[in-house]
Amino acid sequence: MNAHHTPPVATLELDSVGFIHRGHTLLKPTSLRLSGCQRTLIMGPNGAGKSLLMRLAHGLITPTSGSVRWQGSPPAQAMVFQRPVLLRRSALDNLTYVLAINKAPRPELTTLTRKAQAMSALEKFGLAHLAKRPARVLSGGEQQRLTLARAWLLNPQVLFLDEPTSALDPAAIKAVEDAVLEFHHSGTRIVMTTHDLHQARRLANDIVFLHNGELLEHTPASDFFTAPASREAKAFIRGELVW
Amino acid sequence: MQTSDNPFSTALSLIVNMDSALLSIVQLSLQVSLMAVIIASVLALPLGAALALWRFPGRNVVIVALNALMGLPPVVAGLCVYLLLSRAGPLGEWGLLFTPTAMVIAQVILVLPIIAALTRQQVEALHGEYAEQLNSLGLSRLSMIPTLLWDARFGLLTVILAGFGRASAEVGAVMIVGGNIDGVTRVMTTSIVLETSKGNLPMALGLGIILLALVTMINAIAHIIGETAKRRLG
């Protein structure tokens, strides 16, 4: 566990959160409570509303109905996207950039200069030798690790990840999953979408299952994989396509 | 300035002889146009970026107006500045008419819509790619502007060059507000008009060749800087 004192992670409450776009219901009114320092995986077939639910929770999108609330003050959050968005500058400069705009560095790094903090994050994610390289010419796996290093510097209490491994090779997937566990180990709550069942088995404490813009279940991972409650989840686990 | 019948040899002899009259004309041309582009960029880059990021009633009207102003005839811009700065005009007391400052003001009016309108397009496209990440980092729209402008820098270099092309090529505005006074407000384009009207066509063409060469040189330098940086940053 983290040597530093990590405050308990605030609870996220989604109260009848719905989203309608141009007359199409993309998310039916959904109530969900995410508490404790868990690793929650949001699953479901393509188009189920996983990414939308995550963006609503992170606050990138405002729901058309219902409310998203944090109990207590909103915690520090970061998000890692499916396609890494990196600035047109060096890997190192991508990290010093977020330190310049973010006022709450990781407590263990406060004594270091921004550059030294950024270097320590690059080292942590195995990217130190690429510090001077332009971020956008790095490989897909390196780019995603760089976004994780960037999120690390933001010292988030909650980390959202939207299918962070869907375009990566097995070694890069392993690196991202290790990083997710490392975040969790240091006291960060994880909320992640995936449609990879094996990945969900490896990472999840609990599963949120969506289908056609509807939340069908929120259950502990062990229950979900052995005895899913909904017919759709059963079919999804068996690998039968559900639309 | 001695002349021959061949414009190329005229241009060459102008360059080789380096007479001070020509030098001061070239210098003033570059000074006025570069100053106008710098001032227009300082105003238009943030303006274009803000227009890309904010949604407000009448935004489309502003965008259409800016796009239309890209085609503003230089003589019309010159006339407006002339009316403002003439003795009887609202800013007549400043005594700026027929000075290089007046020429800079007129060219800023010509260049600003070009840089603002094209910046709006570039930044809007880049914002489409960056918006979620920057929102996730907690940036306000205002604080996104420097980030987006910097990351769009290669495209914006071309935008600024387009503005410089407009400024260095136009004659109507600088003629009206500058008056083509020898040694004070005479620039390359107004000299070309004057030599043409005097029937000294080789000299006019010779000056044209020098102007073209200068503009080409500046564009080449900018291109090389931009391409080198782009190749380094991917």
From TrEMBL, chain A:
Residue intervals of the ABC transporter domain: 12-237
Signal peptide positions on this chain: none
One family name in Pfam for this protein: ABC_tran
The UniProt record lists the keyword tRNA-binding: no
Transmembrane portions of the chain: none
A GO CC term assigned to this protein in UniProt: plasma membrane
Localization: Cell inner membrane
Entry GO MF terms: ATP binding; ATP hydrolysis activity
Gene3D superfamilies per UniProt: P-loop containing nucleotide triphosphate hydrolases
Topological category with respect to the lipid bilayer: Peripheral membrane protein
Superkingdom assignment: Bacteria
Keywords per UniProt: ATP-binding, Cell membrane, Membrane, Nucleotide-binding, Transport
Keyword Transport found: yes
Family stated for the protein in its record: Belongs to the ABC transporter superfamily.
Entry protein name: ABC transporter ATP-binding protein
Organism (species): Halovibrio variabilis
From TrEMBL, chain B:
SUPFAM superfamilies linked to this entry: MetI-like
Keywords, comma-separated and alphabetical: Membrane, Transmembrane, Transmembrane helix
Transmembrane helix is among the record's keywords: yes
GO BP term, example: transmembrane transport
Keyword Transmembrane: yes
Stretches assigned to the ABC transmembrane type-1 domain: 26-222
Gene3D superfamilies on file: MetI-like
Domain of life: Bacteria
Main location: membrane
Residue spans crossing the bilayer: 34-54, 61-85, 97-118, 154-181, 201-225
Cellular-component GO terms for this entry: plasma membrane
Entry's localization field: Cell membrane
Topology of this chain in the membrane: Multi-pass membrane protein
Protein name, UniProt field: ABC transporter permease
Organism (species): Halovibrio variabilis
Classification lineage: Bacteria, Pseudomonadati, Pseudomonadota, Gammaproteobacteria, Oceanospirillales
